[in-house]
Amino acid sequence: MIVPLLIAVVVGYLLGALPFGYLVAKAKGVNIFEVGSKNPGATNVRRVLGHGAGNLVLFLDAAKGALAVGLFPLVHRVGPQYCPFDTDGLLVLEITGIVAAILGHSFSCFTRFKGGKSVATGAGGFLVLFPLGMGIGLVIFGLTLAISRYVSLASMLAAAALPFAAFAFKQPSPVISMSAMVAAFVIYRHRANLARIRAGTESKVGQKTNDTPTS
Description:
Blueprint: H1 2-17, H2 20-27, H3 42-49, H4 51-78, H5 87-106, H6 119-129, H7 131-148, H8 151-168, H9 173-189, H10 191-199
C-alpha cells in the first residue's frame, strides 16, 4: 500500500500544482500575481480578465481536483489488476489524492510555492468523492453569494458545510475527518478576506478591480 499512497501523493500534488490561473492570464499578457487580489484563482482571473477566462480557470481547477480523486477508481474499473484494492483501500487513495491536490494548488512548485485558496480544486474533488455533500455546499454557496455578494464568504460557508453534511449522511469517518480538515484549511486561506469583510473593504461580485491589465 505504501507505493500506491506515494503515487497518489505525487500525482495528486502535481495535478493540483498545475497553475491554470497563472497560465491563462499569462496567455493574455497578464501576470495574475501582480493584479487584482494577486491570487491565481478563478475569482481574481474573472475580475481582471472577464468571465470567459475566469470560467475556464474555474473548470480547469475543478477538473484537476476531480482527476486527483477519480484516477485510482478509474484505473481499478479499467484494469483491476493494476489497482487491486477493495473499497476501503480505494477510499484511502482518493482521500490522499484530494488532500495532495489541494496542497499542490495552494503551494504550487511551478510558481515558487504560491497558489490559490483551493476552493475550486477541492470542489472538483468532493464532486467525485461525496457528490451529495458537494451539492449541499453548492446550494449554500449560491444562497450566500446571492445575499452577501461575497465570493469569499460563500466559499468559506460552503466548505464549512461539508463535514456536517458528511456526518449527517453517515459517510465513512475518514471522509468526515478529511472534510473537516479541508474546511479548516480553506477558511484559514481566507483569513485576509475575513479581515477585509470586517473592515468593509472586501470586493463584491460585480465590483471591478482597479487594476488594468496590459497586453
